[in-house]
Amino acid sequence: MNVTVIGAGLAGCEAAYKIAQSGYTVCLIDCKPAARSAAHKSDSFAELVCSNSLKSDVPDTAGGLLKAELRMLGSLCIRTAEQVRVPAGGALAVDRELFAQKITEQIQNHPNIQIVCQTAQDWNDEELTVIATGPLTVGKLNESLARRLGESLGFYDASAPVIDAASIDNSKCFTASRYGKGQDDYINCPLNKEEYLSFVQELVSAECATLHDFDKRELFDGCMPVELIARGGVDSLRFGPLRPVGFTDPATGKRPYAVVQLRAENAQKTMYNLVGFQTNLKFAEQRRVFSLIPALAHAEFLRYGVMHRNTFVRSPQELDKYSRLKRFPRTFMAGQICGVEGYVESMASGLFCGINAVRLLQGKPLVSLPPTTMLGSLYRYITSFAGDFQPMNANFGILPPLVPAVRDKAKRKTAYCERSLSDLREFQKDGQLN
Predict the structure, then answer these.
(1) Which residues of 84-121 are buried (b: 16+ CB within 10 A; e: fewer)?
(2) What is the C-alpha to C-alpha distance for residues 259 and 255, in angstroms, rounded to an integer?
(3) Could you tell me whether strands 307-312 and 153-158 are parallel, antiparallel, or unpaired per DSSP bridges?
(4) What is the pLDDT of residue 95?
(5) Which pLDDT value is given to residue 35?
C-alpha cells in the first residue's frame, strides 16, 4: 500500500478518495462496524453526528466560499452532499443517512482502497500516513498521540435534539427562510416576550447531565450549549439562535420577539432538529424546557441532544503548513483533530492532505493554497496562531484585508469571494495542483 489513512470520517474519506483517484493504493483503517465512538450511531463512513447542515451555501458567505473552493478542487463529500440535499434555505443540508450511505459505497467500491476494520493502536511514522480519526480519537492511538506529541487538548462538542414533524403544532408556527432567502424551508416557532422570558428562566435553571473532567474553558464557542448561551444574559438568545430579525409572523404581521427555527433532518421532512439548540441538559429536562416553546408543547423527541468530549492537537506547535506533523514529516493530520472546526472544514482538510500526500508520492514539492483562499487562510491560521489556540472554522476574519479596503459590508464579502476564487483558478491554471 502507498498510503495508510486512519479514520473513515469526512476528512479520512476525502483524503483516501483523492489519493485513490490519483492512482495510488490506500489502506483505510476504521473501527466500524465492529466498534463505534460514544457519539456515533451508524455503521456507515462519513457519519454526520451533530447536525445535517453543512451551513451556508450562499456564494458571498464564508461557508459558501469554502464550498465553492472545494467544488473547484473536486471534493467527494460536497459532490455527494449536493446529490442528497434537503431544502434548507441558503444552507446546504443533507439527508444524513443517504449521505453517509453514498460516501460509504464509493469508498468500499473503489479498486484502489482496501478497508481494514479495526481500532488503530498506533501508526508507523516512517510510512506515509494520514491520521483522520476525528475529535473522538480514543484508546491506544489517543495515548500514542499524547505520548509522542507531549500533549493533546480536550474540549466538548454538543448536538441538538430532533423531534417528530407530526408532533409540531402547526397553528403556532410558520414556514419561512430568514429575509425570504430560500423556499420557506424552515419551520419558525415564535415566542412573545412573556413566553421568551419564561423559557429563558427555566432553561438557565434546568439540570445538566454530568460530564467527567469537564472544564468550561475547554468549550469551543461555535458549539456552545444553548443553556450556557442563555446564562450570558436575558437577551443573549435573542441575539443568537433565537434572533427574530428577517422574519414577520403572519399571525401578527409583526416581527416576533424571539424565534426558534426547526430544520428538516431528512428528505421526507418527517424529522426536524432545533437549530442552534446544542445542549447538555438531562433528557427529561430537555423534554420539559423545550416543550415550553408554544409550537413544541407536545413535541415527540426522536433524539435528545448530547455532549461528548473531543480532542485536538496544538496545531501551531505541531503542524507545518502542509498539515504534516513537524516531528514526523511522513504523517499528515486531517479533520477536527488537527484544529479545524466544522463538517466542511474537516472535508477540506482531508482533501488538502490527500493533495499533498499525492505530491509526496510523485516527488513534487508540497503546496499550500493561496492565503487569499478560505482554505489557505484557515491553514495559515491553525498553523501560525500565537496564544491560547482553539479550533477555527471558516470566516472572513481570517482572510487577508482587501487592498484597497471596501467599506460596504455586502460588497466587501463579495470582493473577498471573487478574489479567493480568482486566485484559486490562477493557482490551478499555473499547474500548482498537477
Answers:
(1) bbbbbbbbbbbbbbbbbbbbbebbeebebbebeeebbe
(2) 9
(3) antiparallel
(4) 95
(5) 62
- Residues 6 or more apart in contact with residue 96 via CB below 8 angstroms: 47, 48, 52, 265, 266
Task: State residue 216's pLDDT score.
Answer: 47
The pLDDT averaged over each successive group of 10 residues in the chain (434 residues) is 94 98 97 66 84 91 96 98 94 94 98 95 95 83 84 68 92 90 87 97 91 50 83 94 94 96 86 92 96 96 80 90 96 94 95 97 96 96 83 88 90 95 93 72
Q: What angle do CA 154, 344, 429 make, to 5 degrees?
A: 125
Contacts with 217 (C-beta within 8 Å, 6 or more apart), sequence order: none
The whole-angstrom separation of Cα 220 and Cα 155 is: 7
Q: And the C-alpha cell for 293?
A: 416553546
Can the peptide bond before residue 33 be classed as cis, meaning omega within 30 degrees of 0?
yes
- Give the three-state DSSP class for 55: strand
Q: Give the pLDDT of residue 153.
A: 59
| Of 304, 320, 309, the residue nearest 367 (C-alpha) | 320
For residue 189, what are the β-bridge partners?
260
User: How deeply is 281 buried, as exposed, middle or buried, from its count of CB atoms within 10 A (0-12, 13-18, 19+)?
Assistant: buried
Residues 6+ apart with CB under 8 A from 171: none
Residue 422 CA neighbour count, 13 Å, CB half: 6
Q: Residue 146, exposed/middle/buried by CB under 10 A (0-12, 13-18, 19+)?
A: middle
Closest to 126 measured CA to CA, from 325, 268, 302 = 325
* C-alpha closest to that of 267 among 57, 43, 48, 52: 52
323 in Cβ contact with 331 (< 8 Å): no
Neighbours of 433 (CB within 10 A): 16
- List Cβ neighbours of 385 (8 Å cut-off, separation of 6 or more): 315, 316, 392
Query: Angle at the Cα of 19 (from 14 to 24), degrees rounded to 5?
Result: 155
pLDDT for residue 217? 44
Closest CA to 9 of 159, 141, 135, 127: 135
C-beta separation of 121 from 141 below 8 A: yes
Neighbours of 43 (CB within 10 A): 12
Q: Provide the CA 94 distance to its chain's centre, in angstroms.
A: 13
